[in-house]
## 1
Amino acid sequence: MRLRHALPSLLFLPCLLISPAQVAAANAPAPAPVPAPASAAPPAADIKPALRVLRDECVGCHKPGKAKGGLLLTTHEKMMKGGDNGVPLLPGKAAESLLYQLLLKDGDPHMPPKKDLTAPQITAIKTWIDSGASWDASVFDEAPAVRPVKLTAMPAGYQPVLALALSPDAKTLAVARANSVLLVDLGKPERPVSGRLEGHAEPVNALAWSRDGRSLVTGGFQKIITWDMTTRQQTRVITESLVGSITALVVDASGKTLFAADGETGGAGFLRRFDLASGKLLTTWKAHDDNVLSLRLSADGKLLLSGGADKMARLWNTENGTLKSFYEGHTNHVLSVAFNKDATRIATAGADREVKVWDVASREQDVSLGDKKIVFSGVDWTADGVSLAVITDKGTASVHTDLKKHVGEQRSETSREKRLTGVGEALTSVVITPDSKWVFAGSFEGRVHAWEVSSGKASEIKL
Ligand code: HEC
């Protein structure tokens, strides 16, 4: 038992002296530590720096579902329940606390396992424990600090189309392919590429037009660029506070506010509100327990819908960012979300191989599409609410109209379905034109397919 020597003050815990089987049995409620509210403790030390260390360096391996060493560090209560070796700290006594000892050079096992914390981080933990190890849950809802990341070149041949966005006049299709944005002119029969926006070094994951079609916003790794679409020049680059990839973008109805989703891979998903003209960050809030994968604005501009890797869809008031409702039922990532015309219904596409349609007010799921065999990677609803386009990671696509609500257990005839010819490659993003005549989808291999809905026939747009 490697931990024992590091634990002189905690040896009263019976589990350290007995066999693993007994450990499990004896491990139940760990004895409460006797707090030593040392009179020498510095008054009201700032505990946030230490909690940020736990949040950024430890919680990844000590959270529900991944409790290494049996230890959770997500709440004070869980932390004080302790891990396989009992309670990890003695408030007021850092030097005698495992949670501090393991951070030092000779910590065994050393924490975090494959890296050394900086001296200020270790000092922050020490000061925190010495001052009584109190808690401030709000720290865990803050967006993590921006970390400098060394970017490596994208592998040659990696050209995924990760986002599509149709201009409000439906004449230009913006295609995010690898780190470029291509502008396809849909007004001409041959659909030529009429422009290219270069400004990202990393793959572009998110695109959003303003409602007047004058600007396009593009999001890559820790970077948002706004473009004037008359001159096709950059108007602003936003990097402030952004962590990880920008996973979704939406410009509000007035064209003044930008909503962006970001977060570290596998970490919490944040929504941020920016003033578009100045690029100033107005607010940030934690929206999902895992990355936000999709974001939509209702037609009246009042509601924002987000889908996340935490299996949830959530509805927000755009005005103040408060949570209005949530939709729970997918058993895997919610990959894509869409509103109907008047935001009375929403569609969510899940990695659990199901598209669900929900009644917004009752939060009941009223339609389910798919036979649970294929992952649905995208949904788009026409603004008139007539047609719902759906794509899959197996290259199939379909358009659903006349979506009826479920009656009892009956699952058939929930909609009229128009199947589009399969293209045999994983599709990543979809748009349907406002007149319901065309569906465009981007693929992981870097192509954009166009289907004429009436015939179901596919053709490829030459990029
Ligand atoms: C990469 C994953 C990882 C990270 C990051 C990590 N830990 Fe751990 N931690 C582990 C593993 C694995 C164990 C069990 C080690 C063993 O038993 O040998 C463990 C055990 C522990 C224990 C002992 C629990 C017990 O009761 O046995 C403590 C205390 C602890 N970690 C604290 C921390 C702190 C504090 C941080 C952040 C500074 C941290 N860990 C970061 C993986 C991690």
Note: Residues 3, 57-58, 60-62, 68-71, 82-85, 88, 98-99, 102-103, 109, 111-113, 117 surround heme C (CB under 6 Å).
## 2
Amino acid sequence: MRQLKLSKAFTLIEPGPVVLVTTCAAGRANVMTISWTMVLDFTPLFAFTTGPWNHSFAALEQQRECVIAIPTVDLLDTVVGIGTCSGRDTDKFARFGIAALAGPVLGVPLIEAGCAAWMECRLIPERHTEDAYDTCFAEVVAAAADPAVFADGRWDFRADNAALHTLHHLGAGNFARASDVIRAQPLQAA
Ligand SMILES: Cc1cc2nc3c(=O)[nH]c(=O)nc-3n(C[C@H](O)[C@H](O)[C@H](O)COP(=O)(O)O)c2cc1C
């Protein structure tokens, strides 16, 4: 082992799937890339980190709704593009040729093409964590996944569906793709 700069510690556990977070405020849809996410228990509650330096944050604060979509490797360059320009001055849906569908419960714009799954979410009123830790808590109100890669309640990554695998951010423009599934042996009685 070699000592690590504390500012790099997050990189060790960052690589959950990269997500696209869509919002809509004042009739304008926007989308940003997020890799800092967290699952909260078995309930459909999630946290993600973003803040007022992003245009999306104002929409999140105002509307308190979003869709979290999980892009596939096919969308890699678009995912990076979305995460390196701002809805402040760019209509990202037009720029990247993305179609927005309406979420079934809240009507929030959602991206399905090039994505393996999406979750339409309502933000939980936790202003303290938003202000102090730039972390939003979200409750999922509707979700869908592509059965070609998510079946029986779990991801099913195989060589024959590689184009549908999820992206995992390693930093500095590097990503890993989720590859084949390996199965652990159940613990035997001692
Ligand atoms: C791979 C990748 C991961 C990112 N992860 C995050 C993140 O977790 N939180 C965040 O606030 N910004 C993240 N960003 C940056 C935002 O997506 C970026 O600032 C974007 O331009 C915000 O768009 P907006 O101003 O339209 O909201 C990430 C960007 C990339 C390319």
Note: The pocket of flavin mononucleotide is lined by residues 18, 30, 32-36, 49-50, 54-56, 80, 83-88, 169 (CB under 6 Å).
